[in-house]
Amino acid sequence: MNITDICNLALNHIGRETIASLDEDTEAARTCKMHYDLQRQTLLRAYTWSFAKKYTKLAEINTKTPGWKYTYAYPNDCVMARKIYNEDNTWCILWKNRAGNFDQVLLNDNTKALVCNHEDAYLEYTYDAKDANLFPADFAQALSYYLAASIAVPLTGSDSLAQSMQQQGLGILSEAKYTMMGERNRVPEYPSKYYKARW
Length: 199
Known about the structure:
Elements: H1 3-13, H2 27-45, E1 53-57, E2 70-73, E3 78-85, E4 102-106, E5 112-116, E6 122-127, H3 137-156, H4 159-182, H5 193-198
Antiparallel strand pairs: 1-6, 2-5, 3-6, 4-5
């Protein structure tokens, strides 16, 4: 399935004619092209999808950030930073929203960066996956409904149709997350020697 196929699913959901290409000179193609990337990135940020997961060693930036020992360059293709590891890939940080783990900051030159207190840090992140051929069927289906919700008003003028598409997209997205979880078999990691000793 390619990008045009996903756009045509979205158009079909709202009862509009399909397109041959996003580059054709039609209102439907222009509207799909305007909304597609934003909806794709929104869904990528919504979950740790296996097909869009990457690991990289972070490049340290020679700058000081108050409250943090290290500042690292934000990967260009990152849409959501997930976890940070230390040099030997031991799980040293659990989740982004826990205090003291890591944070995203904006440097003085308007460059995004990541800060943490770990040297030689590695990042697990969701990258900006653009190849629709890699999308699982349920992710592509959810994306088609999210796209349908965003193009429904400009193409049909119907707020109720947009809301209906959004609700269907949410349901399919939840199922896609559940299915993705089923493809993982992972022994829980524990954040300290105390917890490991208890087990």
